[in-house]
Amino acid sequence: MRIAVRGEAPVELAPVRAAIRAALRPYGVPPDAVLALAFVADAEMRELNRRHRGKARTTDVLSFGQDLPPGAKGALAAVSLRRERDGTLELGDLVIGAAQARRQARRARRSLAREVAFLAAHGALHLLGFEDETRAGHAEMVRLGHAAAAVAGLAPGRSAVAKR
Q: Given 3.40.109.10, 2.40.440.10, 3.40.50.20, 3.40.390.30, which CATH number is that of 2-151?
């Protein structure tokens, strides 16, 4: 999978890319799929969240993917992905609020690398129809996101993050 990056990444990208790939691997996403990953400031994230979700506040990650058939999730969503006329497979766009990720990592006493990898995996799962609007969906996505970050080599749990 090709992962194109825009904006200033707040961490080394190799583990973030690995977490995205680990999150999507079980569902058979074609290896030539393209995913765009952008890092933005709070103001841009707040505006995107307001425009696309009607929530006038910043958030940690937003996912913009293909329209999937109702109820399609995981492997069923992956086989439903449509290619562009030129044959490319655009999986979608992930936007991560770098400052929000930093705040969340500090609050949870996790490394910023772990938080960003988790958010990237979480956003990638949204592109395959996973949802976190229900208690069960949220629990599943948290579990899968942390598992993907762990596969990427980022230690689970809390870390000694210095307060600023």
A: 3.40.390.30
**Residue 121 neighbours by CB under 8 Å, 6+ apart:** 19, 20, 22, 23, 144, 145, 148, 149
Q: Where are the domains of the chain?
A: 2-151
> Tell me: the pLDDT tens digits for 123-163?
999 999 999 999 999 999 999 999 999 988 876 654 333 32
* Residue 120 identity: A
Bridging pattern class, strands 33-40 and 61-65: unpaired
pTM: 0.92
